[in-house]
């Protein structure tokens, strides 16, 4: 009966009539709130009737004080697992603990935030029973007020919090601050949760995230130091400091972020990873959360993944027309290996997503395995790698080959096993897209051979390698034209009379740049290059052959963008090698 509505169950049990249900629904529309609370206000139900019916609807046992079922075990230290103040505030009563399973009586089994906090606090799986508010208040007071240790624990928690709140952060030596922080977390975790859920902290975390989204930041860094807290946003690849909150708010801010990301707020010694989805008006922004312990406390980095902020379209990313023609021809192949190379943060995943968007078709079965899935794309089967349970790139790829795929995207080729499966998939009629960490396109071939892929397997399988970097776009509102000097013209082979440099205005926050574009080299694999691969050609031979076949290097591609007024010489020199 769990799928039935509460009103239907009440009518079926003869506790209310249909007319009473309509009356309650009409009042609910006016006063809001849950329908159960309306029944109580109108006097249609007793507390026990409502609790028992909710239990029936949700398949949760109902327990009343009279039956003796609200009597916790006194020999399991349950008052330490769920402290009195948390129990009283949230109407939760621990009844028994078996291994990692905690049985609790609750008033509101639909309060998911409270249940999440309870899981974090107890580090247990929860078995719930439902009880009335009156019975729970009575049972909680009877149980905790007879526990001698509880009052001491609660008072000690208050003292720790008071010393933390009243002391100036700059007056604390690092060892003392660390010890005090640790003691507070051990003695009264629910206080940490409570501080993190206070309105000012909630608003502050929301503001930090919202401002980062408004500023087009890709990452948020929250960094504690001896007597200060720093917050930095990475915008267009560069970190900028923003005015930070007071240092003593570090712990509540980190705790709030951990609660949102469903991380363990009590664990401060080990790195943790999680995720948050933030809804802003009409769009959802995903955030990847990473925490790491430093000598001054936990540093948090939040990676913002805003699909609306990035146009997943090859044309808008910055590839020139010649490169787009070569890339699209390779993507039209019915099978083969298509690699995008570059260092971390060079936009490789975005290029692959844009490629998938271009070739996505209802007649094709497209599957991806990623670590993690950054953007969710409608119509594509995406799998997140979970190494902790054995779901690696190689494991997922083997499974994919039994799923009748047409196109497979692998987040990254990291080892020989993954590379071998990619090559095998390409040779058996699948188009395989992936990334490699190499400096440029030709070095991807030597890297694959270095990790153990035989040249006779690469020769028939490779179709395209893109090497890329991201360069900042000049702000269109304030970019400043100037005439290149003679040495620049000679050194960089500049053909344009006027080029542009960064100036700075309110539109770009005085940086002179707004947004980024791809600076790339597209190496199409033709017969000449296949012959060179078969003959174990060197990197220099492969690069020379690619250039003779019309490939612009990243530097040459960047200088064309300088001539077009899209970016500056300084920016291209900063992101490419002058070769």
Structure, described:
This protein has 579 residues and is α/β, with parallel strands linked by helices. Helix content is 43%, strand content 22%. It is built from 25 helices and 18 strands. Strands 12-11-13-14-10-15-18 form a seven-stranded mixed beta sheet, sandwiched between helices. Strand 8 and strand 9 (297-305) form a beta hairpin. Helix 11 (189-196) crosses helix 13. The longest helix has 19 residues, at 148-166. It starts with 5 loop residues before the first helix and ends with a helix.
Number of helices: 25
Topology, number of strands: 18
Radius of gyration: 30 Å
Q: Characterize the largest beta sheet: strand count, sense, and whether it forms a barrel.
A: 7 strands, mixed
Gross morphology is elongated
**Mean pLDDT value:** 84
> How helix-rich are the residues, as a percent range?
40-55%
Q: Strand order across the biggest sheet?
A: 12-11-13-14-10-15-18
State the end-to-end distance: 71 Å
Low-pLDDT parts are 148-187
Class of secondary structure makeup:
alpha/beta
Q: Which secondary structure elements does this structure contain, and how are they paired or packed?
A:
Layout: H1 6-12, H2 18-31, H3 35-41, H4 47-58, H5 78-81, H6 84-90, E1 92-98, E2 101-106, H7 112-122, E3 125-130, H8 133-144, H9 148-166, H10 174-187, H11 189-196, H12 199-214, E4 217-224, E5 229-235, E6 238-242, H13 250-260, E7 272-280, E8 283-294, E9 297-305, H14 314-317, H15 321-331, E10 336-341, H16 348-359, E11 366-370, E12 381-384, H17 393-400, E13 407-410, H18 416-427, E14 431-436, H19 442-450, H20 455-461, E15 462-474, E16 480-483, H21 486-492, E17 498-501, E18 513-524, H22 527-534, H23 539-548, H24 554-563, H25 569-575
Parallel strand pairs: 2-3, 10-14, 10-15, 11-12, 11-13, 13-14
Antiparallel strand pairs: 1-2, 4-5, 4-9, 5-6, 7-8, 8-9, 15-18, 16-17
Helix pairs in contact: 9-10, 11-13, 12-13, 17-18, 18-20, 19-23, 20-22, 22-23
